[in-house]
Design brief:
homotetramer, five-stranded antiparallel β-sheet, globular
């Protein structure tokens, strides 16, 4: 593989270290692009950014999107590309793409003002979920069990600055006992799925919130995950699913700059190495 | 025309009144969708939103995008569609599409952190422009003439809440004497261009900041405007251009939910009526 | 009365109109100081602000405080003075003054970080109240009935910008059936008290949230209100009280720039006129 | 000394380590109160907080104020007390106290809205200073040399969330070649003053912004510093002064939770030890 690989980062997580290590192992020329240190020109001007394969890894979603755009305008092949990262990063846009591809999602209503949010939440069967279009690790995902809590959520959200975080995604609550499924897709293939189980006194199954994990083997989530990943044209992605007793598996969320340390451990798969192999295949094309 | 038209709004500006009037004139069945009063379901559930042609007019960019998405998942043809509104609403995404289509833009650098922004601004030839990816009416578009001002901009931006408004678009200043060109495109056609001239003591040519306007007749901006509009697949759009002495016309910005009162007056064209005619053509297809 | 009266305002509410009318009735020379139009010098420089009696009425608390300070440095007698407005405007400072004067308040804990707030709320007997030190009309006052809601409040508060609104006042919930008492004190005298009763489906008794009112006649709240007003050295103030079955009346909040339209109507007292009489007495001293 | 000392902290800076070390040296019983781990009850309930001498050291101003208040309601003698920390922490309140005591400050105007701020800045002789009432280390202190920069500052400030950070303190610029004087007062005594000189390309003399320091020996700043400290009833404080060619020394700012590492080094004085000696004297009273 002669093409240069750019590893674009802001904060170095375990994932970025694993990726760096895997890239070194196969001996590919790699440039670390630290966006905290380098500003990025739009258009083809910066020699050392041109014509590369770029792994886009900034933690903050918009930083990842804008890094990808800058590299794309410098003729680099970005993984994931800016459009995919944005589609995954904004849950309303994710749902749009899933619905277009006839993929199952929870019942969802969008409320764009405090009035419509309050009205929808008060009238909705409880419990009900309220979340923002952007945000990670379960942050500002609220389980609302009564009208007082609905008012609390609406009042606090109204204090935030950006229209995006003032937007309410209101969803049916799916009783899963704090469990969800996370699958990891690279290219056309699902390399595995894990079950995440929320810790006691927490209903959200985010590992950042203390969830436990175990491997699962079930063809249905595998297949859904691949379709979801393709719906947003991802090179790779993690996909979160809920199991609904009547409706079956529903897609809750896709991550276009996914973490994979926990999944690697749980499944005993070297995800970084799998991803680097995928890069290598692309580099040869 | 038998298809229902939805006029989706939050704040009613003169433009929305003109559109309503024009729709009444041709006798088309019109539903006003006030997103301050109605929450919007994702997916095909709401009878009165289905299978319509929807004019997306909320003032806030993300509200416009999410309104368009909700209507698209209800099988409506949106004008503009959600993707176009988002591409126009985020200046970095706009520039990406323009560059992909070999359309001319000002020299631009993206700085994603306070450190890279400060470094870029201090090293840049002055004056230099600093702006955010989102925002309207010239807000937070800064003309920086010296290093003190660069520091002021970077420090204040860092206090904002969202990553998007913390992102710096840093651009060459184009000495235009406070003039720019605004063109208006509907479908494949540019219906006219005006020159906007900033009032004294203001370098920005936004009408909201007191600029004066006059008609201009020049085939080059017309043609560029059409190409810019097509680059983001807009049904209609306003396009802002600067004239650079050596590089010629450069595209500065596109608006996907454009105001047009001033342009209508300056050119003595009924833009609302032109737009409604365009809708009618689409409705017949 | 020969001293000039300054009526310092930002938004003109019914209260400010009533005050203006009462001032005209007694024929006192009055200057309206609109702080949206006039910047205020610190120190004795501005002739038309000097040596006056100034009624401080801006709606925003810090605007009221800073207006009062500017006028005080111009030798004006402010009603209320800046220190009183600040003590009333910051609930933690209010409680400090009440405790120093052995006046009864609800059981209160201050949590200055998300960790201590979450810990305190999770361990606290439910329901429990969480509120911010600053803020009016019941905004961001949360009734927390379970641990999920506690997490929601803490997460959302952490997104706010200022340390003050990130501070948690955590209090015992006092079961009052949505009722509280509001008393109005001018000088050494309580001119009356009303009972406010929250509308159905709301536990907060703010009139802004739809509460109903009726007069009450009970010497105990009267006396407490006077003591509370004196604890913060107010010229006039409204005082909110809760009735606790075992502890008796507790002071919940004091307002140093109080509204009084509803209280005037409920008690059939012309509060503006009473306040102007008080000013007149001061002017004569 | 038998009274317990409480060292109240959030972030542990070098200053807090020096204070801890000095307290150990004299063998006083010391409790570290980490407000990131402990919530604080209002009123006399918490045994281990009662009847102590408390050094208030949280970095964030409001956290320091509220920590002091909680300890004061638990019968502790706070150093500094809550009122002093607040008076120093809010520059408008500081100026009020200085003016009341006939102490010299720069010419200052308060603008409470964007309109009055813009108007004042545009009309003011340039350069002019614009700052917020709260904030440390020179943050959001702007040197404005022209009208474009004035507009930039006003627009950006308007985007901030709290009324306090939207408030503009507008001051004459004092040409000091980037120099100021910092004095340190404990009790009735000024233990020394240093000159701070801004690094090249920076006009602000904050050490956080790279300033250099040297000792100075001049009785006038010493005396002014003591008077300034007494004006806000500080037990100890650092005081920043500017030298104005015609007006002489002017007081710019007081810090009620001051850092002192740099001053200790520059003057070769063990400030922590001096402060602990002061505590000891108080403990004996």
């Amino acid at each position: 593989m002669t093409t240069q690989v750019i590893l674009a980062v802001d904060i170095i997580r375990p994932e970025e270290k694993m990726l760096w290590h895997s890239l070194q192992t196969i001996g590919v020329k790699t440039k670390i692009l630290n966006i905290k240190k380098e500003a990025l020109p739009l258009g083809k001007k910066k020699h050392d950014l041109k014509d590369s394969i770029a792994l886009i890894r900034p933690v903050s979603m918009y930083r990842a999107v804008y890094t990808a755009i800058a590299l794309e305008t410098n003729n680099s092949r970005t993984i994931n590309n800016s459009q995919t990262i944005l589609l995954a990063g904004d849950k309303i846009q994710t749902y749009k793409k899933l619905l277009e591809n006839n993929l199952p999602i929870p019942d969802t209503t969008i409320a764009l003002t405090r009035e419509t949010a309050l009205q929808t939440l008060l009238q909705h069967k409880k419990p009900v979920i309220d979340k923002t279009p952007i945000g990670s690790w379960g942050r500002m995902v609220s389980l609302i069990k009564n009208n007082e809590t609905a008012k609390i959520v609406v009042e606090h959200r109204e204090m935030l600055q950006s229209t995006q975080t003032k937007t309410h995604i209101i969803q049916e609550y799916i009783p899963t006992n704090g469990e969800d499924i996370r699958c990891f897709v690279i290219g056309q293939e699902c390399i595995g799925c894990i079950k995440r189980k929320a810790q006691q006194q927490e209903w959200r199954s985010n590992v950042a919130l203390g969830a436990h994990t175990e491997p699962i083997h079930d063809p249905i989530p595998n297949e859904l995950a691949i379709k979801a990943s393709q719906a947003i044209k991802a090179d790779y992605a993690s996909i979160d699913l809920f199991y609904h007793k009547e409706k079956g598996y529903l897609i809750n969320e896709i991550n276009g700059v996914p973490e994979f340390k926990v999944l690697s451990h749980t499944l005993k798969i070297n995800v970084a190495s799998e991803l680097v192999s995928y890069l290598k295949k692309i580099g040869k094309k």
